[in-house]
Design brief:
The chain is mainly beta. It has strands at about 1-10, 25, 35-40, 45, 65-70. Helix content is about 0%, strand content about 30%. Strands 1-5-2-3-4 form a 5-stranded antiparallel β-sheet, with no helix packed on it. A hairpin with a 6-residue loop joins β3 and β4 (about 45).
Length: about 70
């Protein structure tokens, strides 16, 4: 995974013009245990917590507050 340092705000991310095989990892800065995967804003965003965080609640923050932290 290529990590972005610093993370890129979701709404400022320059997404590929067409969805491809790449997955992007997204997190909520307010809820640091959250992890989401997406191919871009036009596709679904899937909640993928770490195993130790499996039973923590998914956050309900809007995508506008999320950060893109890496690309696979």
């Amino acid at each position: 995974m290529q990590l972005f340092d610093p993370p890129i705000p979701f709404l400022k991310m320059i997404w590929p013009t067409e969805p491809g095989p790449e997955m992007f990892e997204v997190k909520c800065p307010t809820h640091p245990w959250t992890r989401y995967l997406t191919k871009g804003p036009w596709r679904s965003v899937h909640y993928c917590p770490e195993p130790q965080d499996m039973f923590k609640e998914e956050c309900s923050c809007p995508l506008s507050t999320m950060e893109v932290i890496g690309r696979d």
